[in-house]
Design goal:
There is one protein chain. The protein has a domain at 8-65: Winged helix-like DNA-binding domain superfamily/Winged helix DNA-binding domain (Arc Repressor Mutant, subunit A), CATH 1.10.10. It is 40% helix and 7% strand. It has three helices and two strands. It has helices spanning 8-19, 27-34, 38-50, and strands at 54-56, 62-64. The protein has a two-stranded antiparallel sheet with strand order 1-2. Helix 1 (8-19) crosses helix 3 (38-50) and helix 2 (27-34) crosses helix 3 (38-50). The longest helix has 13 residues, at 38-50. It is globular.
């Protein structure tokens, strides 16, 4: 099995979200911020969503996974419930 290297733009996008924890971008805003065309931007966002780093809100915005989730939607670490 071969491991694909992470593309520099994906790393840059991830770094932006890490530096600004409340960052919330639409696809159009992400395209402007990272100077990408639609296809490339969708690829970057899809890669980060599929990797579990980002999630898309019901309004179509991309935010860090687990940031701003209602308590019922947050994941608990194994054993966090005392079991």
């Amino acid at each position: 099995m071969s491991v694909r290297p992470v593309e520099p733009i994906v790393l840059r996008a991830r770094a932006e979200y890490l530096e600004m924890p409340g960052l919330c971008l639409t696809e159009a805003q992400a395209r402007r911020l990272w100077h990408l065309d639609q296809v490339a931007c969708r690829h970057v966002l899809a890669t980060l969503v599929e990797g579990g780093f980002l999630r898309q809100t019901s309004r179509g915005e991309y935010i860090r996974a687990y940031v701003g989730l209602p308590a019922t939607e947050t994941r608990q670490a194994p054993g966090a419930d005392g079991r």
